[in-house]
């Protein structure tokens, strides 16, 4: 932005012709007063002056007589508030507490191997004993490794359930592991039946 353009747009103002004369006159008066002030005479007032001034003023009523109607109304209001305060129903606050000992949540213990699980493990062990070359295949080895990991996770989860009880997340994890274990076992048995 160019400030000169904006400056050119500003309106011009011409002061009144007598303005400077008035300013000079006021400054001259102030200068004369400053010079004359030290030359003024000093005067001590009479000691009884303030007493005479006070006698000439209208006498004010004492503070207890001033606004007596307002004071009486305020007093009545204060008395009424005090009576209302004393006769209000007292609020009774009762604090009660008790301690309860919660029974330990039932602990989900890993279910002992079912008969089906035992039969499946016996079948896998028997097939690997009879057909050693079949159990050496990479897919069978991988499925047996996954099954061993899932068994370890099941035991670890059972320990957590003993410590933390029926935690929803742990129960969901247990269900998920059992489903995975069943799927791996089914696939492994399918490979060994060939």
Model regions low in confidence, pLDDT < 50 over at least 5 residues? none
Instruction: Give the mean pLDDT.
Output: 81
| β-strand amount | under 5%
Give the beta-strand count.
0
Span between termini = 90 Å
* Major β-sheet annotation: none
Order of helices and strands: HHHHHHHH
Class by alpha and beta content: mainly alpha
**How many distinct helices?**
8
* CA-atom Rg in angstroms: 54 Å
Protein topology:
Elements: H1 3-9, H2 19-36, H3 49-56, H4 68-86, H5 115-130, H6 132-135, H7 138-164, H8 168-192
What is the gist of this entry?
This protein is an all-alpha fold. The protein is built from eight helices and no strands.
Tell me about this structure.
The chain has about 190 residues and is an all-alpha fold. The protein has a domain at about 135-190. The protein is built from 8 helices and no strands. It is elongated. The chain starts with a helix and ends with a helix. The mean pLDDT is about 80.
Which terms summarize this structure?
194 residues, mainly alpha, elongated
């Amino acid at each position: 932005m160019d400030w000169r353009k904006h400056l050119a747009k500003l309106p011009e103002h011409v002061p009144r012709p007598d303005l400077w004369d008035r300013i000079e006159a006021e400054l001259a008066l102030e200068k004369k007063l400053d010079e004359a002030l030290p030359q003024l005479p000093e005067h001590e007032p009479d000691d009884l002056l303030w007493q005479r001034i006070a006698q000439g003023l209208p006498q004010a009523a004492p503070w207890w007589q001033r606004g007596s109607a307002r004071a009486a109304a305020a007093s009545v209001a204060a008395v009424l508030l005090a009576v209302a305060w004393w006769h209000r129903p007292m609020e009774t606050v009762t604090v009660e507490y008790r301690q309860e000992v919660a029974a330990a949540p039932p602990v989900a213990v890993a279910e002992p191997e079912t008969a089906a699980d035992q039969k499946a493990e016996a079948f896998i062990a028997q097939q690997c004993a009879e057909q050693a070359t079949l159990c050496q295949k990479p897919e069978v080895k991988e499925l047996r490794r996954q099954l061993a990991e899932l068994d370890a996770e099941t035991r670890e989860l059972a320990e957590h359930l003993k410590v933390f009880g029926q935690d929803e997340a742990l129960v969901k994890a247990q269900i998920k592991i059992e489903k995975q274990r069943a799927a791996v076992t089914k696939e492994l048995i399918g490979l060994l039946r060939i």
